[in-house]
Amino acid sequence: MSSATNATAPFETAFGGFDISTDPARLDAARVHAWLSTDAYWALGRSRETQDRAIAGSVNYGAYERSSGELRAYARVVTDLTTFAWLCDVYVDRPARGHGLGTALVEAVRDHLTPLGLRRVLLATNDAQAVYAKVGFEPLEFPERWMALGLR
Predict the structure, then answer these.
(1) Of 21, 114, 121, 150, whose CB is crowded by the most CB atoms within 10 A?
(2) Which is nearest to 69 in space by CA: 27, 34, 13, 104?
(3) How many Cβ atoms from other residues are within 10 Å of residue 133's Cβ?
(4) How does strand 71-79 pair with strand 59-65?
(5) pTM attached to this predicted model
(6) Is 74 helix (H, G, I), strand (E, B) or coil?
(7) Which of 127, 125, 118, 122 lies closest to 140, judged by CA?
(8) CA distances (Å), origin 31, targets 72, 100, 145, 148
(9) How confident is the model at residue 1 (pLDDT cuts 50, 70, 90)?
(10) Residue 146 CB-half CA count within 13 A
(11) Using CA atoms, how far apart are residues 129 and 16, in angstroms rounded to an integer?
């Protein structure tokens, strides 16, 4: 079985009282939309339709409180499962912040993607560089080589 095939099977790991999973059946898409569209600077006002399409085209990670099954954190990865990935929409429910759940979620993403042999995993953040640095992310070595096409 190839690594890409394994990557599409649900991934599960644990952190404290939380289960971190890519199982799409567990994801509370309405809650993800509410968080991102009202409380995440990069997604304020994002429509539910747009969020649902983003979820459908991505590998989604949820951190679920083991005692209640409630979603407490979310991350999304856009990837071809072979060469490249973009980590985005990382969000931790406000009451669950400050206890390492965000770092654990990003570590789980990293650990899930590492066996795929991806050449690069990128992300962008205005304010959480220290969180991502703990997991191994670094500033771009040659930012002048990168370009972006903004379509809006």
Answers:
(1) 21
(2) 27
(3) 11
(4) antiparallel
(5) 0.92
(6) strand
(7) 122
(8) 9, 21, 37, 30
(9) very low
(10) 10
(11) 23
